[in-house]
Amino acid sequence: MGRLDPVFARARAEGRAALVGYLPAGYPTVDGSAERLAAMIDSGCDVVEIGVPYSDPVIDGPTIQAAADVALKGGFRLRDLFRVVEHVASAGGHAVVMTYWNPVHRYGVDRFARDLAAAGGLGMITPDLIPDEAEDWLAASAAHDLDRIFLVAPSSSAERLTSTTAATSGFLYATAVMGVTGARERVGSAAAGLVARAREHTDLPIAVGLGVRSGDQAAEVAGFADGVVVGSAFVSKADEVAGVRELAEELADGVRRPVVPAAQT
Amino acid sequence: MTDKKDEHEPDRHDPDERGHFGPYGGRFLPEALIGAMDELATVYEKARLDPDFVDELNRLLRGYAGRPSLLTEAPRFAEHAGGARIFLKREDLNHTGSHKINNVLGQALLTKRMGKKRVIAETGAGQHGVATATACALMGLECVVYMGEVDTQRQALNVARMRLLGAEVIPVKTGSRTLKDAINEALRDWVTNVEDTHYLLGTAAGGHPFPMMVRNFHKVIGQEAREQVLEQAGRLPDAVTACVGGGSNAIGIFHGFIDDPSVRLVGLEPAGKGIESGEHGATLSEGSPGMLHGARSYLLQDEDGQTIEAYSISAGLDYPGVGPEHSWLKDTGRAEYRSVTDAEAMDAFQLLSRTEGIIPAIESSHALAGTLTLGRELGPDGLIVVCLSGRGDKDMDTAATYFGYTEG
């Protein structure tokens, strides 16, 4: 059983997709990020991904790179992350952490998992850790009852979809397009195909990320996925709490009116 | 060029099938790139056993790159090294002026085998960028080179060379604006364009199969050097020295001697303004294990796992990571790693120029400086082969400023 299963089950029962919103801890400040993440929960995010600012964010586009830079220049430390997680969890939010692997490796994988669980976090998304290299995380996530959310991409082979979904719990993160993070005009058509392929290998809920920025796009993705992940769009609205609130409301409306995809021709 | 020993054949120094050298190496990369890494590994594994591939590569190395490179004794330089005999492996004489061409020709051939039309690369000093632009011109491939903005300024001549060769050079303005950030930007390009693009990584680092593959393309340095030193000196050297940034020339020359236990393998890292200043790039000497750019290896990082920016007067050594096999060689004790300051390297740069009439790259000057020290330790009976990985033409601006040659 995944820690996030009830969240996705409830969304499914309501005939909608779950809304997953991302913001890096420490952006614009540590307290500011906690406040915004709580507002995102409050305004309709079913789950929040709390990002860990990292010096070498190779799969992030300019928006999240810049935010990580602000956080690190502002003195962000890993211990601040757990404080933010605790704030969100104690406000009743479902929080997972999204992080490049080196900060976790350096902190100590088991120690990180322990502190994340103690803060009330439910799992971790690991964009540059594949299950093949994740032995210690598989053990630590089991020991501390955390979801391990791995990613699949349009380029993932059937063999890799099998092994990756087998190692995943909570939900499967499908990257909609080949590319770095960042809001896009259109969510790639590859996304629906990837979700369909992944479903042949797993019953896990599947959330689609990379590129969603509007209610209409959320509605479109909700038509074929169990969850809609929104990252850069939240970051670019994070100057003001009202900005993330407004966006969360628009997206929460979007995931509640899924657009059933036209039949494939 | 010798056909007696095939440097491409699998041997006991290869990593495991997932690319691990002991606890180092592997693949710490986004899933989106794993398909391309698998494809590259498959195509490479097939090519390394294919006589047609090996012949074609050898033909290019001989007829285009100018191999075998010379092994030149440096007696006047050696007078400053306690009288030990010193031989220079002259990678500076290769076409494009450094060892980088060995790897680039191999990977460019693989790019064609994969049916890809576009090549991207990172570069620090510009040597790898120039070599890549050269191979792409030769083979009709589109070429984009990412280079930190700081490096485009200190290596302006190489930027012009790449552009002349038809490559697009993109200055990278993020982070420290040096080699590390150029690699980040190249990875971002690759994850977006992986379908038609090969990332022609320039050092023996990154995710599997890059560290093994790049090493194998550079093994020719060590194999030639071993044969040449036996012929010229009649015996194996006491030590082989090379500079280590990412570590590709070092791993190439080390492997010629790795099965000769009497030969010490000594890597020289940049100590920059001095280890105690904190401004250096001595990853193996001062770092700790972590992940950067796709592999587990030694890394300059803070206690939260954030990368610490490296510093060196030499753009090619200014990197906070290092190839994973060097980490393994350090831990097993087969190789030893020392560091050399900017000042020591620049002294050796000038000394080789004035004693032998050979202007070395500042990168290679780190190996030369380490060789002077090691020679004094070994005494007059010592014999050292040093990898002169590149020539110093590109460094004239830096040198002229450093030594004040342009003043009145």
From TrEMBL, chain A:
Q: Write down the EC number.
A: 4.2.1.20
Pfam families attached to this UniProt entry: Trp_syntA
Reaction catalysed by this chain?
(1S,2R)-1-C-(indol-3-yl)glycerol 3-phosphate + L-serine = D-glyceraldehyde 3-phosphate + L-tryptophan + H2O
Q: Which InterPro entries match?
A: Aldolase_TIM, RibuloseP-bd_barrel, Trp_synthase_alpha_AS, Trp_synthase_suA
Which parts pass through the membrane? none
Q: Which pathway features in its UniProt record?
A: Amino-acid biosynthesis; L-tryptophan biosynthesis; L-tryptophan from chorismate: step 5/5
Listed A to Z, the keywords are:
Amino-acid biosynthesis, Aromatic amino acid biosynthesis, Lyase, Tryptophan biosynthesis
Q: Which GO terms describe its molecular function?
A: tryptophan synthase activity
The record's active-site residues are 49, 60
| Role of this protein | The alpha subunit is responsible for the aldol cleavage of indoleglycerol phosphate to indole and glyceraldehyde 3-phosphate.
According to the record's subunit comment, the protein's assembly and interactions are: Tetramer of two alpha and two beta chains.
* HAMAP family, alphabetized: Trp_synth_alpha
Q: Which PANTHER family match?
A: TRYPTOPHAN SYNTHASE ALPHA CHAIN, CHLOROPLASTIC (PTHR43406:SF1), TRYPTOPHAN SYNTHASE, ALPHA CHAIN (PTHR43406)
Give the UniProt family note: Belongs to the TrpA family.
Q: What is this protein called?
A: Tryptophan synthase alpha chain
Task: Show the taxonomic lineage.
Answer: Bacteria, Bacillati, Actinomycetota, Actinomycetes, Pseudonocardiales
**Gene encoding the protein:** trpA
